[in-house]
Structures are given as structure tokens and as C-alpha cells.
Design a protein that fits this description.
482 residues, alpha+beta, Beta-Lactamase, Helix Hairpins, Heat Shock Protein 90, five-stranded antiparallel sheet, 10 helices, 12 strands, 53% helix
Length: 482
């Protein structure tokens, strides 16, 4: 059987609620005890004060043993709070008492103040007395009576005060304390819920982030602005995901390069074998055709057909040469060159094609562009190939724009754009693939070879195109390759 689990939020609320209830209960218990003691002390002091006032008011009649006068005085003072009054003589025997004493059972007939009594002596006691079959809570207070400077006690007065009012006050106090305690507990629970949400919500976000990361979504960012340790953890979490994303991209890029390298190696091996097998018999055929063409006795129409065959053989030979050049692993012959001069030399190589289609070249070279360390022949091959592609994409009277400048302190950027027909978006990702071409003639190795050369220079090449609006190639290469 699976053990039932509680979330951190639920546990936090339960623990805090129990803690609040315990603390509030303890505080209320202490306050209630102190309040009850305070109320009882107030009632006791009030009883002593009333007893003293009664003694003072009846002191003269008491000294003259005027029972009738005392009786009249004390009967007038009996009410719902003051239940009975009893005067005791020197012998601690009842001297005079109110008629209300007959209503109570259990009232002591003699004084509590016996023996050597001083004016400071006091007596009090809380009693439960019976009146008409009902139990009444009574505070009984007795004080001694002294006449003038006499050191001997002349008697004492005992009164009985109803404690119902006191207990009513205690009940009101307890009710108020319970309401305050209940309100405090409710506020505490609400605060615990809010605090639990503030604590657990960031943790939930961290959990969600962990789940997304485990599923491979390294772009997920945790947005926590609480300014505490959890926010620090979220920040470190985001740093970790950024590094993982970077590592993932590097691994994917490395895998792509590895796959591309394996593909090119396979193509190279196959192409090289086929090219060699084709080239040997092709050379023999070419030599024999050239030998026949050198014979002055062949007819003109035969010479024309042999010339067409020789052109086809030359075209096949060029294709074979391109395949071998692409498959061959070459080392760069690096040296220091001026980038504008390499571009100018590339333009000269295709000047006839530019004139034939009346295409203008617009150049924009950054002034004081420092020299770069490259293989000038290879780079010239790249520029020539890209320019020829632009010329072929332009019908007539178009424009090719070449921009060269510094990208930053370590790289230079070359942009070649044209106003040609553009490249369809569906084939744009494939144009750098070996043997991919949309032309009726060609090997489809020009752009693949250009990309290979640029990557040998530790650079990159990108293409941007829109059908009917032209094409732009962007090349970035380091000034000083490692």
C-alpha cells in the first residue's frame, strides 16, 4: 500500500497552525489566570473596604452595645451584592447579625479572628452556601474592631459578598480572551497559508523547471524575484540551463559537422574511385578524337561532330576535376593579404560575363581595413563562384553589391547580394549540400566547396533569399585564424 504523502505547503500549514494554537492557548491560559486572580483580588479588597466602612459607621453603637442601632444600620445595607453582616463581641460570639443570615446554611457562629489579633489582621474565604436549595458562591470577609488606642480587640465584623458578579466578569473576560484567541488563530492560519504559498510557489516553479529540463527544454527560465535564497537558487538554475543549452547546441553542431564530415568522406571516396575509373578511358577517347581532328582529310561535317564530342568530353573532364577537387583534403596556404584586393581579382575573372549581361558591380569597402591571413587562391575561388551564381540569377541589367568591412576586432564580414530571381524558400536549406543543383548543367559542388573553404578558415557562410527579390550571401572569417 502506497504511503500517503503531504505536500510541503500542507505540512507547513499544519505545523504552523499547531504551533499557533499551542502558543495562543498558553498565552490565553496565562492571561486568564492573571485576570482571574486580579478580579478576585479586586473583589477581596473591595470586601475589606466595605467591612471597614461598616465597622466605622457602627463603631459608636458597638462600643455602647447598642444592638438595636447596629441592627437598624446594617439591615439598610443588605442588597443583592452584600448578602449578610455579622458583628462578634470580644468573646468571638455573635453580637448582632442581619436577618438574611437565616437564609444561609453553613455560616459559622463564631469569629475566625481568635487569639492575639492586631489591626492588620484580615480574614477572607470563598464559600459555596445554600439558599432556598440553591448554591450561591460567597466571598466571606472579616476584620477586627479596635477602639481608639486600645490594643485589645473589641470585636469583629464579618460580611458575605456575592461572587456572582465577579464570576460574571470572569466569564466576560474569558469570552473576550477566547474571541481574541480565536481571531489570533484564524489570522495566524491565514498568514501561514499566505506564507506557505510565498515559500512553496517558487519551489513549485523550480520543480516545473526541473521537469521541463528533464524533457529537454533548456530554454525554460524561472522568474523568481523574492530576493531570498530561493531566488538565488533560481538564478543559479537559470545559469545552469543556459550552460546546458549552450552545451546542447555545441553538441548538436558538432554532431552536424561530424555527420557532414562522414558524408563528405563517403562522397569523396566514392567520387574519387568513380572519377579515376572515368578519367582513364576518357583521356584515351579525348586523345584519339584530337588525333582524328588533326587529320586534314576528314570532311567538315565529321569535323563538326568530332568537335561537339570533344566539347562534351572536356565538360565531363571538368566535372571529374571538380569532384576530385572537392573530395581531396587540402591544406590552406595561409599568408597575409588585402581583402579588397582579393575581391577585385575575383571581379576581374568574371568581367566578361558582367559585360555580356550588362550587370553593374557596386562596391563598398571599409577604409583602412587591415590585412587578413587567408589562403588567397581558395578565397578567390569562393568569391568567383558566388559572383557567377549571382550573374546566372540575373536576367539582364541587374546589380551585384559587394560590402566588406570589420565585424569586430577579430572577424571581417563580406556581403555579396544581387537583384536576381532569388532562391525558393523550400530549397534554401539544401543549397550547400554536395551535388545539389537546380541547373541543367553543373555538378552542384560550387556552393558546397565554397562552404568547405570558408569553414577551413574557421568562418561561416549564410544565405538569405526571397523569390523575385534577389539573394544575399554573408561570409564571416577571422582576421587571424588559429
Amino acid at each position: 500500500m502506497k504511503k500517503k504523502r503531504f505536500s510541503i505547503k500542507v505540512k507547513f500549514i499544519i505545523y504552523v497552525t499547531l504551533l499557533i494554537i499551542s502558543l495562543v492557548s498558553l498565552i490565553l491560559f496565562i492571561i486568564e489566570k492573571r485576570e482571574v486572580n486580579t478580579i478576585f483580588e479586586e473583589s477581596k479588597n473591595k470586601g475589606f473596604l466595605i467591612a471597614k466602612n461598616i465597622a466605622d459607621l457602627n463603631l459608636k453603637p458597638f462600643l455602647f452595645w447598642d444592638k438595636k442601632g447596629i441592627k437598624e444600620n446594617i439591615e439598610k445595607q443588605i442588597d443583592n451584592k452584600l448578602l449578610y453582616i455579622i458583628f462578634y463581641d470580644k468573646e468571638n460570639k455573635p453580637f448582632v447579625a442581619t436577618d438574611s443570615t437565616k437564609n444561609f446554611k453553613g455560616i459559622y457562629k463564631s469569629s475566625y479572628l481568635k487569639g492575639n489579633i492586631t489591626p492588620e489582621h484580615r480574614y477572607f474565604n470563598s464559600l459555596n452556601l445554600k439558599k432556598n436549595g440553591k448554591t450561591i458562591r460567597v466571598l466571606e470577609v472579616e476584620i477586627p474592631i479596635f477602639a481608639g488606642d486600645s490594643k485589645s480587640k473589641w470585636g469583629s465584623v464579618k460580611i458575605g459578598l456575592s461572587l456572582e458578579e465577579m464570576y460574571m466578569e470572569i466569564r466576560r473576560t474569558r469570552l473576550i480572551l477566547l474571541l481574541l484567541g480565536g481571531g489570533g488563530i484564524i489570522i495566524g492560519i491565514i498568514s501561514a497559508i499566505i506564507l506557505a504559498q510565498r515559500i512553496t510557489n517558487p519551489i513549485k516553479k523550480l520543480v516545473e523547471g526541473t521537469i521541463k529540463i528533464s524533457k529537454g527544454d533548456f530554454t525554460y527560465k524561472i522568474n523568481i524575484t523574492s530576493g531570498d535564497e530561493i531566488a538565488d537558487l533560481a538564478e543559479k538554475f537559470n545559469e545552469m540551463t543556459s550552460k546546458l543549452l549552450k552545451s546542447k547546441k555545441e553538441i548538436e553542431e558538432a554532431n552536424k559537422k561530424l555527420i557532414q564530415a562522414e558524408k563528405l568522406a563517403s562522397i569523396g571516396r566514392i567520387s574519387t574511385g568513380i572519377a579515376h575509373e572515368i578519367r582513364n578511358p576518357l583521356t584515351s577517347v579525348k586523345l584519339n578524337i584530337q588525333k582524328v581532328l588533326n587529320d586534314a582529310n576528314i570532311k567538315d561535317d565529321e569535323r563538326e561532330h568530332l568537335g561537339i564530342a570533344l566539347e562534351g568530353i572536356n565538360q565531363i573532364d571538368k566535372i571529374v576535376k571538380d569532384i576530385l577537387d572537392f573530395a581531396r583534403v587540402t591544406r590552406l596556404n595561409l599568408d597575409e593579404f588585402s581583402l579588397p584586393s582579393i575581391i577585385e581579382e575575383s571581379i576581374k575573372l568574371i568581367s566578361n560575363e558582367l559585360k555580356g549581361k550588362k550587370i553593374t558591380i557596386e562596391k563598398s569597402f571599409e577604409s583602412n581595413l587591415p590585412t587578413i591571413i587567408v589562403d588567397a587562391d581558395k578565397l578567390r575561388q569562393v568569391f568567383t563562384n558566388l559572383l557567377m551564381n549571382s550573374i546566372e540569377a540575373i536576367e539582364r541589367k541587374g546589380k551585384i553589391k559587394i560590402i566588406a568591412g570589420a565585424k569586430n576586432r577579430k572577424f571581417v564580414k563580406i556581403i555579396i547580394s544581387d537583384t536576381g530571381c532569388g532562391i525558393p524558400s523550400e530549397i534554401l536549406p539544401e543549397i550547400f549540400e554536395p551535388f545539389f543543383t537546380t541547373k541543367s548543367s553543373g555538378t552542384g559542388l560550387g556552393l558546397a566547396n565554397a562552404k568547405k573553404i570558408i569553414e577551413q578558415h574557421k568562418g561561416s557562410i549564410q544565405v538569405f533569399s526571397e523569390r523575385g527579390k534577389g539573394t544575399t550571401f554573408e561570409i564571416i572569417i577571422p582576421r587571424r585564424p588559429k
